[in-house]
């Protein structure tokens, strides 16, 4: 297991380097001049040129990129062009909020998705199964930002049950977490149903029922454990998707997390901040994938991680 973890961590190095290169090139292709945006509309050309020089934007692109990589290996993500503060400090100030939002959204995804999937699989082609299928299709179809606006209007503006925006208490977390987790719950529900239907047809399940074991024990102790492998894969991928989805949801609900920081930095063409924020989000996603692989082995000892 330790060898596998070390091997996977080493494999992340070229992945992270590829991410930094792609983001760097994309930011260079975005229309506009970072120095002009930061200097303001009324700034003189001399002021803009001096700002470009101080930010290192007048150097060749390959020099800028390799300087960034050199600092990255030294633990330096650079300095924000907007706030002139270390990038890592601003990211660490907002990252816990984004991780908290993604964590609660993942809990909602797992609880709602697996519960609906199990109910649907236990009684296939029944009214409950068809109802879960319809709701799942609607959940997958609705854009998260649209769902967030609808929930905000109903539960915050009309009913006034939850605050409109912010991230200060549990009541602030309900609508953003549900909005972000609803789409993932629909996907998990469909995957759980498919996996459970495949498992409950196995011989050992029929043997367990023939022995007189109670139905709920057969479902939760025997069938569910063996049906979790593909579900774990989907949940792991959904967590990565949730990290990306926070960019929209944090903007809709005015949450000062990493996603909103990325949006603000892109608007200001703050290249060091955009690169650093996306790099950290990518690292979190890689760590989650590693954790998912370890869970594979926990639920199925026959899986070879080497």
Automatic annotation (TrEMBL):
Domain ABC transmembrane type-1: 95-296
Compartments it resides in: Cell membrane
Gene Ontology BP terms: transmembrane transport
Cellular component aspect of the GO annotation: plasma membrane
Assigned keywords, A-Z: Cell membrane, Membrane, Transmembrane, Transmembrane helix, Transport
Membrane topology field: Multi-pass membrane protein
Primary location recorded for the protein, binned into one broad class: membrane
Residue intervals passing through the bilayer: 12-30, 101-122, 134-155, 170-189, 227-253, 273-296
Lineage top rank: taxon: Bacteria
InterPro entries: BPD_transp_1_N, MetI-like, MetI-like_sf
Record family assignment: Belongs to the binding-protein-dependent transport system permease family.
Name of the protein: Peptide ABC transporter permease
